[in-house]
Amino acid sequence: MPIPASPGGGDFCYNGFALLEVVEAQSLQKEHTMIMLVLLAVFGLVSICWAMFNLAVYAVPFWIGLASGVYLYDSGQGLLVSLAAGLFLGTATVVVGEIVFVSIRSTLIRGLFGLLYAVPAGVAGFHAAKGLSDLGGAGETTATVLSWIGAALVGVTAWVRIVGWFEGRALEPQSRSGV
After folding, report:
1. pTM
2. Nearest to 55, CA basis, from 145, 157, 148
3. Alpha carbon 19 to chain centroid distance?
4. Residue 111: exposed, middle, or buried by beta-carbon count in 10 A (0-12, 13-18, 19+)?
């Protein structure tokens, strides 16, 4: 049985089964590549949402650190000094806020102090959720509802983090006797 010539008239010969296997292997490789790209895209989206959520929860310390760093850089202090000062002031805002919150005896003043952290975080959460829902093509009503849900979740998370409930501390003032 003679080997058929190539369709293009070239010097190579082909086997229909071998050609089919090569096409299937290339198709399978493309499938695996697409699956990996989809997984990487989902991982990237989740990472961006996680970073945006944490930045929104810590809106006040982030803003203080960023504003001080930009101010120092614009005044000619250099990049390294500006970054170090911004990181220090942002971290100090979180630490001092928790220390002040724990040391306040009045429940009303503690609540108002907690709102200093929770309200800007809620606003940042609203705008982050609004941007993501608009990017996803949601309708106006759906985007607004999702934005309010995002604001509530981020605001409550900021409140809980400043109150310190995640460490087992209660909202009630701590007794001075150590018990």
Report:
1. 0.61
2. 157
3. 47
4. middle
Q: What share of the chain is helix, strand, coil (3-state, %, to 5)?
A: 80, 0, 20
Tens place of pLDDT per residue across the chain (179 aa): 555 555 555 444 455 555 555 566 667 677 778 888 889 988 988 888 888 888 788 888 888 999 999 999 999 999 999 999 999 999 998 888 878 888 888 878 888 888 888 888 889 889 988 988 888 888 889 989 989 998 999 888 888 877 765 455 544 555 555 54
Residue 70 to residue 98: CA distance in whole angstroms: 25
Tell me the C-alpha distance between 4 and 10, whole Å. Answer: 11
Q: What is the dihedral of CA 46, 155, 56, 172, to 10 degrees?
A: -110
CB under 8 Å, gap of 24 or more: what pairs does 48-57 form? 49/132, 52/128, 52/132, 53/125, 53/128, 53/154, 53/157, 55/124, 56/121, 56/124, 56/125, 56/128, 56/154, 56/158, 57/121, 57/125, 57/154, 57/157, 57/158, 57/161
